[in-house]
Amino acid sequence: MLDKEGNQITYEDWEYENKFINYKNFEWSQENPLSFRSKSGDTISSYRQSVPDGMERQGVVFFVHGYGSNTANYAYLGHMFAE
Question: Among 45, 44, 47, which residue's Cα sits nearest to residue 28?
Answer without folding.
Answer: 47
